Amino acid sequence: MTDTVTAVARHEFTTLTPEQIYDAWLDPATVRAWGGRNLKGRDPSSAVTRIEIDPRVGGRFLFADIRDGEETEAWGYYRALERPSRIVFTWFTSPEEEEEDNSTVALELATKGSGCVATMSHAMSAEWADYLDQTANAWRGMLKAIEDTLS
Questions:
Q1: pLDDT band for position 144 (cuts 50, 70, 90)
Q2: Is 125 exposed, middle or buried (0-12, 13-18, 19+ CB in 10 A)?
């Protein structure tokens, strides 16, 4: 990737381990639970419609939901799966983004006391620089939803 910017979100889990957070990103039922909680927190009329996960390097995932009466999709491919400390995946919301292949997210997990710290770094084309805060907040919301769902 050239000319990129990176949105960074960090969240501390006081009682959840790196293994629990790692697994929460790869288990379809758990993703549906925390994804639904995250969506409802922003828009009570939204709903998760599909979660598809092929948890292997090169495997594809799809997260789909209904917002404002329209289905939206986000998908990507796993580039690294290093349990329990790291997941790297692409993140696309349109076929054009997938063609450009310039959106990569890294989830880094580190033990801290009886819990862990999760850091999400989303590297994307510099054309999205105005959306860095919004993107970081979206990842933060997902991490918080995982905590609320699993705690």
A1: very high
A2: middle
